[in-house]
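Quick one, tokens below:
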């Protein structure tokens, strides 16, 4: 390249330096000399700043004149091919672009230097003449230099154009991005520049877009700046704000194609004292679409808890109004204010109305505050919630948790520094240290990097292969064992940063081509000393050194040796004796802790080892970074029912602080649990997942790379419950009464009361004059407890507005919105004003209770009742309907029969003698739904006879109270009830129950979501409770069952009863006719005290046993007795049954019936007679009889117990009779009879009819040509089945027009010639002797219209079929007749109207004449006569009949023959 001829000398031979004049050449020589030294000095500065990089300008100016290195041939930096054609730049390694541009085309810096020279000369030369000469000289130099450069640029351009013309086909190609724009995240009010390099021929046209809208720099002057230079295109955004957060793309297009590249810009805001993760939304119409979007985030994810290794999904439903088809908002997810991108750890999806992010494999790095940001053209909405990630179960018991946040820093050829964060959980033992593992990308083999654990959370990994990429993980270890490994780091390559930067490259101005070359090495030269050696990091495990390469450039293969020396000695020892270091950084291990060392470095190459660098200062081996001090002043503050806000004072003088870990413990448990598993950088944290009502204490410790601090002092205990705040503003201000100088106002309680009872309200008012409101004035100084207040001292006929503020123990809340404007004028209407203070209680799935207060303004007469209205919440105003048709005098009502899950609103109207007054304000929407865990008031009578009402609430808060009332009014007489409350249960005990206590008792729990219930104590209920109370005061032994008698096997008689419970001291006396009974042969007694069963057994009953049996029980003071009277018919029946049971026992010793003969009807309507038999053997026979005649015999049955069956397939009247089965063998016989005659047969057939009815299909409608037919199918039809057809619930009287019948299994009803009068509901009723079964069908409306239309169509078709022209018969197919004979054929013709008759011969019409006579008589008979047949009459004849309904033809063939032929045929 040194001998190549520049292109401008090759194509323009006159263009050399000889054309210049001597004066110009002299001035240029002086300028070049000064420029050389200037460039050299600037290069030396650049060398120290960029680690030895050097730049040589295009004009050949170089720093070699100031360097001791031997002079070499001046290099040129244009790349040429074999034909000396320029193909690009040669960019030397270690050269910067700034100085290159300065020497080549930067006229501004040259002008700056000239200006500086001008100023110096002006100071030196005070003479006006000398100043003028100096100015002239400067101008000439500037003009000449400018002319030279313009000429040079022109030649370069001409050459490029010439080359393009010569090689146009080879250069033309579509646009291609050599360097694509990259995404940026910047702070608000910063500037950002997106740039790219594009190649292509012809030159591409480049356009920048923001969110797919082209950027117009003219309409946004000062905001955007677009530049294009030498195929390098840039977009600069000035003073970024949140509107600039968008996706940008650049489009390059020429005649050969188009290509785009994308980049995102995210603008962030510094967080101030207010915890704002994102800026407030902006509002306004969308200029692009003219639409103002409203975004709402609902169905939100809450504070979530997961465990390492699990999968977690976070999602929200996004409602955007108006909803545009295919419009998709921009969905972004943030963690701790950092924008998240899709990765193998985070999957993000948008399903049209729901944004979801799935954390595929939870690690502690995933813990943090997650924010969903939904951006539309009108602004954005955000929602945030915290995600906590707990440690996975340890593989070894008491092992520590896994480290987290493993990162790679300071990657070089020889080592990579790995950092991590310590876990919050140490397993109960302090962590001894950490092991670092590495894995080469593309493999799955992990190698442990350190033999002994390191305590410092930073470690340099050596032994890496240059150029290869690695991943790292870290494990913690304590006395119990090893933790699980951390999440792996991102891959990182083992190479110097300069190599990575050099791999990216830059494109040349016109070709887009990059040629990177090493400077030509200087052979045989030993490198100089390394520069600026220093210790960058020192711990007790390792020391990291860094230095700059020597100042000389172009040295061959420079590497380094590191030497160490113990302080106080002169003995230098080489550390890396075998392999020199390639990069100017090195990590030293195996140094003695506590000793001081000095270090120095030597350069080496093939020529030898250079001189050592200056040694470092003495460095003591040990951790320079101290463990932070413990935080202090830990203060917990109530937040919610499950969370506490913990704040603390930061660690003092802490260096490189990573964050803080917080732990919490229930007071007295001594068990500490981590509140966060990822260090937090702030000094305030919300600890979630706590147990409501428990007392907690907290402690905090700090963490940095050196380790974890000591714990802070424990905080004061705090109870987990919602914090108290001032209440929200009241709402719904209305006027209840108005007189000339005052108004009575009412309002609704705030939706949020701040966690404490409202202590009162404050009312303000202001006058409104001509629509302009005035100044607010206080209406009351002292708080009022009611939600109604009279504002006095107003001016008549003036307009006023009002506002109300609520107060609790936390303070006075913000005022409500100003009310509507009310006119202060006296009401004179006759009807009452509106009721007020509507309250909804005891909400259940089908009912609720509505309370209200009567109107303040009574009207002309007193109020005598109230009406309550209801409507669905979303229904229009016309949907209001009354609940009570008769006015109620009470100020409460229980509304029943609500639809579950429906939302309702209510209002109340008062009435007096003048009429019904104004409606009250509408209640808030109420959902008719019983909330989970809802309890009701339970009445109870204790052992002492005390009657009490009990209510339990599961949703109580620490501030909740039970409020009891009677008839929904405060209980004013405390002597009637005693109230007791313990925990979440409350009891109202009646002191002396009586008629005064009859009423409705209700209980409301404050500070809950409406927990309430009521109990109605009626006169009957009071009477029942008093009886129960009496029983409790005077106890009796409760009995589960009274004395009863039952028969046992062999006819034994058992008398028994069962007591609820009796103690071991209980006893029983057995009495018969007032005589005590004792155990013996006749009486056997038993008393099971565990079950309370008392029994007495007798073998049999005799007439002497008729009388009264009594069991007398006694257990302490409790007694009871139960008697059983067995006299008269009762005793005789029992005695008879006892004897029967004895006989039964004897019967069952041989073959016998377990179940006597009965019948069963199958789905196929078959009747099966069956009986179950037992104690059978092979010799036992079973004989079947009907009406005394044997019909079947079963022998050799082969089973001990089984079922005998007789099947009657299609039962009819002939199957009626008495059926009998006889079992017999040598042990005896047994008989079972079934009477299927008269009523028995009728009952059987009714069951058959029931099966037939249930098998019937739904009644259907069909049409026929006669009318409409209704029909149903059954699986089986029996002639005895009785069915009744009904029309409009009345039995149908059949006639010629309406008929019914059966065809196979089809039952039908035919309606001939139906009319509109036949419409209605039809039914067929199957009579089964019970309730019967009906099948109905509605023959009306569309069903009747369709059936009637089909009937008309079929009727017309039938009429047409009956009336169409027909040839009935009489015509043969072939007629053979002798010539000369007469032929006469007659056929019947039918049709209405009378058809037309046409005769054809050989498909041609013929007419009647003397030879062929055609007649059609009586409209029925058509005759065909040939008087004398001849051979010409042979042929095919047809008769064609036709009317408006159709056409029909009859064909026959006539064959005439002569007599001889006929005679011959006969012979």
């Amino acid at each position: 390249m040194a001998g190549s001829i520049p292109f401008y000398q090759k194509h323009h031979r006159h263009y050399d330096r000889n054309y210049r004049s001597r004066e110009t050449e002299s001035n240029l020589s002086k300028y070049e000399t000064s420029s050389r030294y200037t460039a050299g000095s600037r290069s030396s500065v650049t060398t120290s700043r960029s680690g030895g990089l050097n730049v040589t300008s295009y004009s050949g100016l170089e720093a070699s004149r100031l360097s001791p290195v031997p002079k070499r041939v001046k290099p040129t930096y244009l790349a040429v091919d074999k034909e000396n054609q320029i193909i690009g730049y040669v960019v030397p390694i270690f050269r910067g672009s700034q100085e290159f541009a300065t020497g080549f085309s930067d006229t501004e810096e040259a002008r700056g230097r000239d200006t500086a020279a001008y100023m110096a000369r002006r100071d030196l030369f005070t003479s006006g003449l000398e100043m003028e000469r100096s100015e002239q000289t400067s101008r000439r130099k500037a003009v000449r230099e400018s002319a030279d450069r313009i000429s040079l640029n022109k030649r370069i351009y001409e050459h490029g154009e010439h080359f393009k013309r010569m090689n146009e086909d080879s250069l033309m190609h579509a646009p291609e991005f050599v360097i694509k724009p990259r995404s940026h995240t910047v702070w608000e009010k910063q500037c950002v520049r997106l740039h790219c390099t594009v190649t292509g021929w012809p030159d591409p046209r480049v356009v920048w877009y923001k969110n797919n809208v082209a950027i117009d720099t003219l309409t946004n002057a000062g905001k955007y700046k677009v530049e294009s230079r030498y195929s390098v295109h840039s977009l600069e955004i000035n003073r970024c704000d949140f509107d600039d957060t968008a996706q940008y793309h650049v489009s390059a297009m020429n005649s050969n194609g188009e290509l785009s590249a994308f980049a995102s810009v995210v603008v962030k805001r510094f967080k101030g004292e207010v915890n704002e993760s994102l800026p407030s939304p902006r509002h306004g119409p969308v200029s692009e679409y003219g639409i103002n979007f409203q975004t709402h985030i609902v169905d939100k994810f809450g504070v979530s808890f997961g465990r390492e290794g699990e999968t977690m999904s976070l999602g929200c439903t996004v409602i955007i109004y108006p909803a545009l088809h295919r419009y998709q908002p921009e969905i972004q997810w943030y963690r701790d204010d950092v924008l998240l991108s899709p990765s193998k750890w985070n999957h993000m999806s948008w399903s049209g109305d729901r944004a979801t992010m799935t954390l595929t494999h939870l690690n502690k790095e995933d813990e943090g505050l997650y924010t969903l940001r939904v951006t539309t053209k009108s602004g954005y909405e955000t929602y945030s919630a915290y995600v906590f990630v707990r440690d996975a179960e340890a593989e070894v018991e008491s092992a520590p948790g896994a480290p987290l946040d493993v990162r790679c820093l300071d990657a070089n050829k020889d080592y990579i520094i790995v950092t991590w964060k310590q876990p919050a959980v140490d397993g109960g033992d302090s962590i001894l240290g950490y092991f670092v593992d590495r894995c080469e990308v593309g493999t799955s083999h992990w190698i442990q990097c350190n033999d002994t654990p390191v305590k410092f959370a930073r470690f340099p990994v050596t032994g890496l292969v240059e150029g290869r990429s690695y991943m790292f993980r870290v494990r913690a270890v304590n006395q119990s064992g090893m933790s699980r490994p951390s999440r792996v780091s991102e891959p990182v390559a083992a190479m110097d940063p300069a190599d990575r930067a050099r791999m990216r490259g830059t494109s040349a101005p016109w070709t887009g081509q990059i040629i990177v070359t090493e400077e030509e090495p200087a052979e045989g030269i030993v490198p100089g000393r390394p520069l600026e050696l220093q210790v960058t990091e020192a711990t007790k495990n390792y020391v990291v050194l860094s230095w700059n390469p020597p100042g000389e450039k172009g040295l061959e293969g420079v590497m380094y040796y590191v030497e160490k020396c113990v302080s106080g000695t002169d003995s230098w020892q080489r550390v890396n004796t075998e392999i020199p270091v390639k990069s100017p950084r090195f990590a030293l291990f195996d140094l003695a802790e506590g000793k001081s060392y000095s270090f120095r470095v030597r350069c080496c190459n093939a020529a030898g080892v250079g001189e050592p660098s200056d040694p470092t200062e003495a460095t003591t081996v040990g951790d320079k970074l101290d463990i932070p001090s413990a935080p202090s002043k830990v203060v917990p503050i109530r937040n919610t029912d499950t969370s506490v806000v913990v704040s603390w004072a930061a660690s003092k003088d802490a260096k490189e602080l990573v964050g803080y870990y917080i732990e919490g413990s229930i007071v007295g448990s001594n068990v500490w649990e981590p509140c966060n598993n990822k260090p937090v950088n702030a000094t305030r944290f919300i600890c979630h997942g706590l147990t409501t009502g428990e007392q907690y204490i907290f402690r905090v410790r700090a963490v940095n790379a050196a380790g974890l601090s000591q714990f802070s002092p424990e905080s004061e205990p705090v109870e987990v419950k919602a914090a108290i705040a001032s209440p929200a503003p009241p709402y719904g201000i209305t006027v209840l009464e108005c007189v000339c100088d005052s108004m009575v106002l009412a309002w609704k309680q705030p939706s949020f009361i701040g966690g404490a009872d409202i202590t009162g309200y404050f009312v303000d008012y202001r006058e409104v004059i001509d629509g302009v409101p005035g100044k607010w004035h206080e209406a009351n100084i002292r708080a009022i407890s009611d939600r109604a207040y009279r504002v006095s001292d107003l001016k008549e006929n003036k307009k006023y507005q009002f506002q109300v503020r609520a107060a609790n123990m936390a303070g006075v809340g913000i005022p409500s919105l100003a009310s509507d404007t009310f006119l202060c004028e006296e009401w004179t209407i006759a009807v009452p004003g509106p009721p007020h203070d509507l309250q909804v209680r005891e909400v259940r799935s089908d009912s609720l209770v509505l309370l209200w207060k009567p109107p303040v303004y009574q009207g002309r007469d007193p109020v005598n009742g109230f009406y309550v209205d209801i409507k669905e919440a979303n229904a229009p105003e016309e949907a209001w309907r009354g609940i009570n048709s008769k006015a109620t005098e009470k100020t409460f009502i229980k509304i029943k029969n609500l639809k579950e899950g429906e939302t309702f609103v209510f209002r109340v109207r008062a009435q007096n003698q003048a009429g019904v007054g104004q409606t009250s304000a509408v209640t808030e929407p109420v959902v008719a739904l019983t909330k989970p865990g809802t309890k009701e008031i339970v009445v109870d009578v204790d052992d002492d006879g005390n009657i009490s009402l009990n209510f339990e609430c599961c949703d109580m808060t620490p501030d909740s109270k039970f409020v009891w009332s009677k008839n929904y009014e405060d209980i004013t007489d405390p002597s009637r009830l005693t109230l007791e409350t313990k925990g979440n249960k409350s009891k109202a005990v009646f002191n002396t129950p009586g008629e005064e206590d009859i009423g409705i008792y209700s209980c409301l729990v404050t500070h809950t979501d409406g927990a309430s219930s009521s109990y109605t104590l009626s006169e009957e209920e009071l009477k029942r409770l008093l009886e129960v109370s009496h029983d409790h005061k005077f106890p009796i032994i409760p009995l589960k069952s009274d004395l009863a008698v039952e028969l046992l096997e062999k006819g034994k008689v058992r008398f028994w009863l069962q007591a609820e419970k009796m103690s071991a001291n209980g006893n029983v006396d057995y009495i018969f006719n007032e005589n005590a009974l004792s155990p013996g042969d006749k009486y056997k007694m038993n008393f099971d005290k565990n079950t309370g069963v008392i029994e007495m057994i007798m073998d049999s009953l005799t007439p002497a046993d008729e009388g009264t049996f009594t069991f007398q029980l006694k257990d302490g003071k409790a007694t009871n007795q139960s008697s059983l009277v067995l006299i008269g018919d009762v005793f005789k029946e029992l005695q008879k049954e006892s004897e029967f049971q004895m006989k039964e026992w004897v019967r069952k010793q041989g073959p016998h019936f377990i179940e006597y003969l009965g019948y069963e009807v199958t789905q196929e309507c078959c009747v099966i007679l069956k009986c179950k038999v037992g104690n059978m053997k092979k010799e036992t026979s079973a004989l079947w009889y009907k009406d005394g005649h044997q019909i079947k015999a079963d022998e050799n049955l082969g089973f001990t117990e089984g079922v005998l069956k007789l099947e009657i397939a299609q039962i009819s009247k002939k199957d009626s009779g008495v059926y009998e089965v006889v079992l017999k063998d040598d042990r005896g016989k047994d008989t079972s009879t079934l009477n299927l005659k008269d009523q028995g047969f009728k009952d059987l057939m009714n069951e058959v009819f029931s099966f037939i009815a249930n098998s019937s299909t739904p009644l259907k409608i069909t049409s026929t040509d006669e009318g409409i037919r209704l029909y149903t199918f059954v699986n089986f039809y029996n002639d005895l089945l009785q069915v009744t057809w009904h029309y409009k619930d009345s039995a149908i009287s059949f006639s010629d027009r309406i008929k019914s019948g059966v065809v196979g299994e089809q039952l039908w009803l035919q309606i001939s010639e139906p009319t509109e009068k036949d419409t209605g509901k039809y039914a067929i009723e199957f009579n089964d002797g019970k309730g019967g079964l009906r099948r109905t069908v509605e023959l009306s409306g569309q069903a009747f219209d369709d059936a009637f239309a089909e009937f008309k169509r079929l009727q017309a078709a039938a009429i047409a079929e009956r009336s169409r022209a027909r040839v009935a018969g009489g015509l043969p197919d072939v007629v053979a007749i002798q010539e000369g004979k007469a032929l006469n054929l007659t056929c019947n013709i039918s049709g209405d109207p009378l058809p037309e008759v046409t005769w054809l011969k050989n498909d041609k019409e013929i007419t009647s004449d003397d030879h062929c006579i055609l007649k059609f008589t009586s409209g029925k008979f058509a005759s065909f006569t040939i008087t004398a047949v001849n051979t010409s009459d042979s042929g095919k004849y047809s008769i064609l009949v036709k009317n408006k309904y159709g056409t029909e033809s009859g064909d026959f063939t006539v064959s005439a023959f002569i007599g001889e032929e006929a005679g011959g045929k006969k012979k």
